[in-house]
# Entry
Amino acid sequence: DGGITQSPKYLFRKEGQNVTLSCEQNLNHDAMYWYRQDPGQGLRLIYYSQIVNDFQKGDIAEGYSVSREKKESFPLTVTSAQKNPTAFYLCASSMKGVWGNQPQHFGDGTRLSIL
Amino acid sequence: QQQVKQSPQSLIVQKGGISIINCAYENTAFDYFPWYQQFPGKGPALLIAIRPDVSEKKEGRFTISFNKSAKQFSLHIMDSQPGDSATYFCAASRGNNDMRFGAGTRLTVKP
# Structure
């Protein structure tokens, strides 16, 4: 079955530590996204990538980094510079269509907590 | 900057009733308006979506009503069921990279 796989489901970070969240898709989608979800708030865009080896900052990119070396993979690193990393992180992908807007398909998220 | 405002924050409906969730947007350049359904511990799943060239779209028990002049759109869930209990997000986008989400509505359908 095609879909988006995020791992791990739960992750704990120590002070000063960088952690990497995995996102893999087998939908052959060109675009991939990372969102942060906090209680009572909508999803906020961290980074997005439209094509391999290219990515752009979203609204809240500070303290995060990404790479897009393969079409299927878009890992997110939460660096020690992100002082409030506790949140639910969602990865999504979409296929660019003729009209530009295609629905985004989401993974089941990674919940990151501070130790 | 909140570009999509969603209300209510939470909603309790009796089984068989109609659930209504409203959203308002600011950017007139938005041209795609999806609704997502999210269950606890899961990612959002696309429920239904509309483009501004139509005023209503219906899929099963779910209907989007769209008012372009008022910059508002709403989700109606007819014959609400306990299995519909989830958090619902509206969104608006212009192109693939500019999707803005509402803050979400937690729907509880009581049996």
In short: The mean pLDDT of chain A is 91. Chain A is about 0% helix and 50% strand. The longest strand of chain A covers residues 43-51.
